[in-house]
Each structure stands twice: as structure tokens, then as C-alpha cells.
Amino acid sequence: MTELEKLRRAKIPCPETGITVKHTLCDICTPENHCGVDAYVLDGKVIKVEGTKEHPHNHGLLCTKGAANREYIYRADRLKTPMRRVGRRGEGRFEPITWEEAYDEITARLTKIKESDGPDAVAVFSGYTKWYRGLLKRFAYSFGTINYGTESSVCFDATMMAWLATTGSFAVPDMAHAATYIGWGYGPHYSSHLAVGEMQEFKARGGKLLIVDPKITPAVKMADLHLQLKPGTDGALALGIARVIFENGWQDQDYLDRFTVGQEAYRRECDKFNLGTVEQITGVPRDKVVAAAEMIAKGGPACMHQSASPITQHRNGYQNYRAILALLAVTGNYDRPGGNLPIVHSYNYQAAGFQTREREYTGATRLQSIHTPIGAGRFPAWDLFQDEFQAVELSQQILEEKPYPIKALLGFGMNLLMFPDTAKLCRALEKLDFFLDVDLFSTPCTRYADIVLPACTSFERGEMRVYPSGHAFFTKPVIDPLYDSRSDTDIITDLAKRLAPQDELLCRGYEAAVDYMFQDLSVSVDSLKASEFPVLVPEAAPPQVGLTLANGFPTPSGKFELESSLLAQKGAPAVPSYPEELYHPQGNRKYILSTGVRLPNTLHSRLHNVPVLRSLRPEPMADISMEDAARLGLSRGDSVRLTTDGGSLCVKVNPTSAVLEGTIHLFHGYEEANANALIPADWLDPCTGFPAYKSIGCDMEPCAG
Ligand SMILES: Nc1nc2c(c(=O)[nH]1)N[C@H]1C(S)=C(S)[C@@H](COP(=O)(O)OP(=O)(O)OC[C@H]3O[C@@H](n4cnc5c(=O)[nH]c(N)nc54)[C@H](O)[C@@H]3O)O[C@H]1N2
Ligand SMILES: Nc1nc2c(c(=O)[nH]1)N[C@H]1C(S)=C(S)[C@@H](COP(=O)(O)OP(=O)(O)OC[C@H]3O[C@@H](n4cnc5c(=O)[nH]c(N)nc54)[C@H](O)[C@@H]3O)O[C@H]1N2
Ligand SMILES: [Mo]
């Protein structure tokens, strides 16, 4: 082997090999992470990825998913060109067309529908991808429709809405000053790997960790106390813990008296949950409930993990989460050092400690309409706090045409396997007059589209990111867009020029939009582009502790609302409650099925087709307890039929001591075992409309493979 061959094989970046290292980010998972990535590029191809050591957020670390970026961007099923459907909807037969042909057809079809049925008959939807959303939302409003909706209809926003009703502002844990950490539904090793290091430091300082989780996870192994509750019973547990605190006089009565409203009504709710009741509902032994109460109330300043979604994805999820939040008031841990500190999201779902004009940009062109957005009037918390449509109601409105018809859908990164009752959504997509889907890959959803457009990945585009440290990063493409793909924001801008030409700022595209939003700051797209790494924005400042307590909460009463006046006005339960008879997940079925608890090698539907990650769990598998496996005579790899009120499917089992007897865990996004085929369309939290993905009654019986 020559010296050059050796250098190339070792992927050494230097002039001889022609290998260069360029900096970008991983956008496979949640914007909370979006780690810096070093891409090793040879002849316009990415040949290797590593974490960026100079990146202020991930400091060179990458998780399983991030390390698979090369295989992700080169997935064999990348869309190559714009396409027009030639077969039946769902069949997946397409012909390639040019971008111009695609744009002409989209423009003609949408213009016609706007004329015949009005602009609100066109719905604009974004899946999990978030980077283009500011532009997409403004495009929807400038086109004239009020129907802009996203995957946030099922994700973090229920958590956010619980904070808004309770304290008026979202708040993050002040780990640096806390003595106790409440890890309620906390699984960072799989869902948010950078948080693990923070937890290790916290433990090394002597901090105490409480974990409330139905599964035994890597985080449980770090815990001082683990409450292994049945999925979705969190409300009963939180109210029971509060009752123990009150009975022992451990509450911060001064905080409760000065800063909260609704104490009496809340205490009446807590009184319903004595230790026997709590144990019977949740399965958590009474001594552990008492120990948790003591740890939270007496263990020094306590802060809690904000939990993205597993607490709220239950039929009583919103109230369960509010019941947990109430513990911060009972123990005086909101807006105090070591507690949870209020912050505001400043750009693209992230808090960076500086203000931007994002809301002004996205909302400026929203028109008045005689209609309300899809799903309005059905879910009180959603109505109070959201301006988007509630996407779980999309299929219903397309099919029923009530209160008015939806005829066209523009999907960006839409994944139909995300929605409960997938079959119903497929029927709805079949009924549409026009469906555009923009994606990186050929998916079950693109198969229903009339026109499919190929988007490019974060490696092939430039995009703006902000980080909690106050940093902003404007990336540059590290390779050209693959095939004939384009960035989402270029696609939106091109469509805007045809369908909303009057919106001059929108038609100037993404960089103009970012500059508009950042105009009050001393950084701009150009100044950020000049840097290879994230730049600290001078205006960024850490949250100031105690301001809310001094100036009043941004709620109608100016206080921490244990009893929410806004929810009361909407006829929703104003005090956190757990009416078991209403939310019992099992019905007459034997098991509780929880779908979608995160696994290290999966991200929704995105990574099932990435060979290296697929190899870690080659097939979809339901995790079941050793006890249930023994009783049914099942070994690893045997098949079972799972049946719920929503449907039934066959899947292999993975017996494990990590899950509770009587529970079944199945990850979602697999076409061959679609968890959401088991969730009925109406299995929703009535406050938020969020699907109860994580607790539904299920039967299980062995079946042929
Ligand atoms: N690997 C991976 N990472 C991801 C994602 C992914 O698909 N894969 N998705 C991203 C997205 S969109 C989101 S929203 C976040 C979600 O991120 P997280 O909120 O962290 O979600 P999970 O990891 O599913 O759940 C965290 C822990 O909550 C536990 N849990 C499940 N049900 C309950 C319950 O009823 N009560 C309690 N107390 N605990 C429960 C789970 O067992 C798990 O250990 O993850 C993000 N990160
Ligand atoms: N049963 C069950 N269902 C769930 C959950 C659960 O826990 N259980 N979790 C829910 C949660 S919290 C969430 S956030 C949702 C996830 O919501 P989904 O929207 O289902 O998430 P993904 O599958 O990651 O991505 C959607 C699509 O976006 C495409 N895509 C990726 N990057 C880009 C891009 O840059 N541009 C474009 N145009 N497309 C892109 C992907 O190829 C994919 O087809 O799922 C929800 N559904
Ligand atoms: Mo999510």
C-alpha cells in the first residue's frame, strides 16, 4: 500500500489526501440537541462524521443516531427528483418531472381550490422537522389559510400548555444550585444524551436523584430512589406525594400563601389520594411514596426535568403533568435558586437567553377568517394556548367536511405513521383533491401524494440554530444537495413567489427572514456565516432568578395557579386531578400497552431504514416482562398478536426485566408493525387533544410468526 493509500484509508484530512473537514450539525433528533458535527469530505462526498470538539453544546460528543449521519444522508431511498403520481393513491407509482413542472402544477391546483373553496380549504402541515417552520407558517398565512399545523400537536406542546396554565411560563431546572433532582419520566441516555453528563456532575457533587418511570432504564441505575409506577398513573402519584407532604407539615407554607392561588381546592384533590389508594392505582409501595415526599420536600432545593412527552401522552396526561408541577409550589421551588427557573423560547423552539422577532415575522400576515382552525373548540387547553390547528383532527375534518371542507394538504416532512388510527388518515388522504408532500425519503406518506418534492438534509443546506448557552450558529452546506433535491426553505420561497407574491419579505427567502428576526441583535446571517463555529450573541443573558416572584407571574391572578382560572373559564378541570374511572387505560383488557418510549437506535420513522442502526434491533419487537413471557410460554423472537380497541397486529417479543408485569412496550414508526394502528382516533386527552400513545388497554396472545 502506498503512503497516500494509507493516509486515505485512515481518512486523514490533509492536502495529500484531499480530505477536508467541514462543520455542520446533526438535525436527526430534537432541537434541544442539534449537536455540532465534523464532516470529513472527499470529492464532494461525506466519508466520515465526528462530533465537533469546538462546539459549545456537544463538545465533540455524538450519540448513536448522530454517529450514523453518513448512512442517514445516503439512505438508499432518498428521493431524487420531483415526481407526479401516476398510480392510485398509496400505490407508489410516480413519474419524474422537472421543478418547473411541479411548481406550475402545484400553483394551478392550489389556486383553483382557493377560488372554489376558499383559502382555509388548504391545510399546511409540518412533521417533526422544525428548522423551516418560521417560513412555512408565514407562507400559510400569506397564502391566506388559517390552517397551519405541525407535529407539535402531539409532542412537547402539551407540557408547555401545562406550564402556561399554571405559572404562565415554561421553566428549566437550575441543576447547578439544586440538591435534589426530580427525574419524572426522565430517560436522557436515549432521548437527550447531553443531559447525561450534567447528571453525572450533579451526582458527583452529592445531588440526589429521584426517578419516576415505569421502566428500568440507565437513568434508574443512577437514582437514589426509583418509583416504578404503572404508565399514565402519574397524577395519582403526584397528588399522593403532596398529601404526604401536607400531612407531615413539610410544605413551604409561606410560598404557598404568598405566591399561589387555589390552595384549598388543590388540597381537597390531594386528600383523595391516601397511601392505600396511591398504591392500588400506581403500583408504587407506600414506603417509597413517603420516601419520595421526604426527598422532594426536605432534600434541599429541588428542581424537575421538564419532560418532553411521556407524561402528557395519556388520556389524563395534561392533568397528570399539572399535578407534578404543583409539587414545585408546595415545596417553594419555582423561581428560586436550585428550583425551576422561567425562560422564554426565543427562536425555533429554543431558549437562547436573547429575544428575537420570530413571532412578529410568523404572525404578521395572518388574516381574520370566518373559520376557526381544524380541531378548534374541542380541546380547551389547546384553544387557550395554541394558534396552530390540532393535527389529530385533520383526518376527521377531511372525511366529514365539518365545519367546512379541507380539500388540499401541503405536507413538509409529513409521516402518516405518526397519527393515531393510521387507516383513517389514509382514507382522508385518498379523499383529498390535492396533496403535496416534501420529504427526504420515499415514505408510506409520499405514496399518497399527487406531487412529491425531494428536500435535502442539514449537510446540504445552511441553517440557523441557537443554543441555551446564548450561542447562534449559521451553518454552511458541507456538500451539494444530492440528486435534484433542494432545501425546504428554497422550496417554500419558490412557492411563495407564485402563491403569495404580495409578501415581499417572505419572497426574499430564508436568510432575509432570519435577518429580520435577528435585527435587534448585534449578529446577522453574514456575521455568523463568517464563523466556522457557533458565536456567542452579546445580548444573551442567563435567566434572572426571583423576578417572577417579585413582579408577579404572567397568569391572570399574577400567581402560581394551582387552580387555573383560564381552564375554569373553558370548563376544563381547573385543579390537577386524577379521576381514575375516566382515564383507566385498560378497560376489560389485560395489559397496558405503551408505544414509543425512546430507544437509542431509533428516531420515530427516520432511522428504521439506516442499516447500522437497524442492526441494533433488526426487527420491531414488543418488550414484555419476564413474568408475562413465562406465563404465556414465550421466548425472545416468538410472535404475539396485540389487540386493542383500535386494531390488532402481530409482532415479535423481547422478554426483559426492564418492564413491569402487565405492561407491553412497542416502538412506533415501523411500517411492518405500526404501533399507531393500535391507537384509536379518539383515544385522546380531552384537554389537549394529545393521543394517549403511552397507555391503552391491550390483549396479547401467542400467534404464528
Ligand atoms: N432516541 C430517540 N431520542 C429521541 C426521540 C426518538 O424518537 N428517539 N424523539 C425525540 C422527541 S420528538 C421527543 S418528544 C423526546 C421525548 O423524550 P423523553 O420525554 O425523554 O421521552 P422518552 O425517552 O420516551 O421517555 C422518558 C422516560 O419516561 C418514561 N415513561 C414512559 N411512560 C411514562 C409514564 O407514563 N410515566 C412516567 N413517569 N414515565 C414514563 C420512559 O420509560 C422513559 O424512560 O425524545 C426526543 N429524542
Ligand atoms: N405511537 C407513538 N406515536 C408517536 C410518538 C410515540 O411516542 N408513540 N411520538 C410522537 C412524537 S413526540 C413526535 S415528535 C412525532 C414525530 O413525528 P414525525 O413527524 O412522525 O417524525 P419523523 O418520523 O422523525 O419525521 C417525519 C418525516 O420528516 C422527514 N424529514 C426529515 N428531515 C426532513 C427535512 O429536513 N425536510 C423535510 N421536508 N422532511 C424531513 C422524514 O423523512 C419523515 O418522513 O411522533 C409522534 N408519534
Ligand atoms: Mo416529540
Automatic annotation (TrEMBL):
<keyword id="KW-0408">Iron</keyword>
<dbReference type="GO" id="GO:0046872">
    <property type="term" value="F:metal ion binding"/>
</dbReference>
<dbReference type="InterPro" id="IPR006656">
    <property type="entry name" value="Mopterin_OxRdtase"/>
</dbReference>
<keyword id="KW-0500">Molybdenum</keyword>
<dbReference type="GO" id="GO:0051536">
    <property type="term" value="F:iron-sulfur cluster binding"/>
</dbReference>
<dbReference type="GO" id="GO:0043546">
    <property type="term" value="F:molybdopterin cofactor binding"/>
</dbReference>
<dbReference type="InterPro" id="IPR006657">
    <property type="entry name" value="MoPterin_dinucl-bd_dom"/>
</dbReference>
<dbReference type="InterPro" id="IPR050612">
    <property type="entry name" value="Prok_Mopterin_Oxidored"/>
</dbReference>
<dbReference type="Pfam" id="PF04879">
    <property type="entry name" value="Molybdop_Fe4S4"/>
</dbReference>
<keyword id="KW-0560">Oxidoreductase</keyword>
<dbReference type="InterPro" id="IPR006963">
    <property type="entry name" value="Mopterin_OxRdtase_4Fe-4S_dom"/>
</dbReference>
<dbReference type="GO" id="GO:0016491">
    <property type="term" value="F:oxidoreductase activity"/>
</dbReference>
<dbReference type="Pfam" id="PF00384">
    <property type="entry name" value="Molybdopterin"/>
</dbReference>
<keyword id="KW-0411">Iron-sulfur</keyword>
<comment type="similarity">
    <text>Belongs to the prokaryotic molybdopterin-containing oxidoreductase family.</text>
</comment>
<keyword id="KW-0479">Metal-binding</keyword>
<dbReference type="InterPro" id="IPR006655">
    <property type="entry name" value="Mopterin_OxRdtase_prok_CS"/>
</dbReference>
<feature type="domain" description="4Fe-4S Mo/W bis-MGD-type">
    <location>
        <begin position="19"/>
        <end position="77"/>
    </location>
</feature>
<dbReference type="InterPro" id="IPR009010">
    <property type="entry name" value="Asp_de-COase-like_dom_sf"/>
</dbReference>
<protein>
    <submittedName>
        <fullName>Molybdopterin-dependent oxidoreductase</fullName>
    </submittedName>
</protein>
<dbReference type="Pfam" id="PF01568">
    <property type="entry name" value="Molydop_binding"/>
</dbReference>
